[in-house]
Design a protein that fits this description.
four-stranded antiparallel sheet; single chain; alpha+beta
Length: about 100
């Protein structure tokens, strides 16, 4: 029969110290992930990019009358035209993006 060896038990102070260190590590990791995900959500421009692509498609197929203006999810979208080029610009909070659309 196998004789069981006695294992030295940890003291209460060692257990508490290890627990505190583990909690601190998980807390730092949690705050880091929270910061990363918040930044990702704030910088997500997929909705406006999809709307711009949709307007570009509608413009190419002449379903949009110029000049065109729209407010989409806080973004101001404007399409203006010159002789041979139309410019689609969308702005929000002093961030302005422009895209050239060529008239057929």
């Amino acid at each position: 029969m196998v004789v069981l060896k006695k294992i030295r038990a940890a003291t209460l102070i060692e257990v508490l110290t290890a627990s505190v260190l583990i909690i601190i590590v998980f807390m730092i990791a949690s705050l880091s992930f929270n910061n990363i995900f918040n930044n990702q959500i704030k910088q997500d421009h997929s909705a406006i990019e999809n709307r711009v692509k949709e307007l570009e498609y509608l413009f190419i197929h002449q379903k949009v009358k110029l000049p065109y203006a729209e407010d989409f999810d806080g973004w101001e979208i404007v399409i203006t035209s010159t002789e041979d080029v139309a410019i689609l610009s969308y702005t929000k909070n002093n961030i302005e993006n422009r895209k050239k659309l060529f008239i057929k």
